[in-house]
Design goal:
With about 120 residues, the protein is an alpha+beta fold. It has one domain. Helices cover about 35% and strands about 25% of the residues. The radius of gyration is 24 Å and the shape is elongated. About 15% of the residues are buried. The mean pLDDT is about 95. The structure holds zinc ion (ZN).
Amino acid sequence: MKVCLYCDEKLEGRTDKVFCNPSCKSAHHYKLSQDKEANLYNRIDNQLKLNRRILKNFNKSGKATVRKEILLNEGFNPKYFTNYWKNSKNEVYLFCYEFGFIERKENNRVKYVLIHWQEYMK
Ligand SMILES: [Zn+2]
């Protein structure tokens, strides 16, 4: 016995039917699109929180330099940030909430300089 994919009602008639009526069909597709949106939202949200946690862990004193690789291994993804700040030299620091980072090359190693958000960066 087949049931409607949306409301679980028993399906009558044609055997290739999947929904009992067009409104169940559209409700089902609406729900799928809502779930997809929620997934994207949750994924971004989780990555931002993870990024923040990693930056926080590696920057306990307010300023730190860490090899980029180490942060990436922890799950840090630099494509996800919440805001940015440009200093007087036009260098752009990316932030995950109150924790910022900028990429630097030192002795052929790619590093991140980590900073804290300050009032004057507003
Ligand atoms: Zn139905």
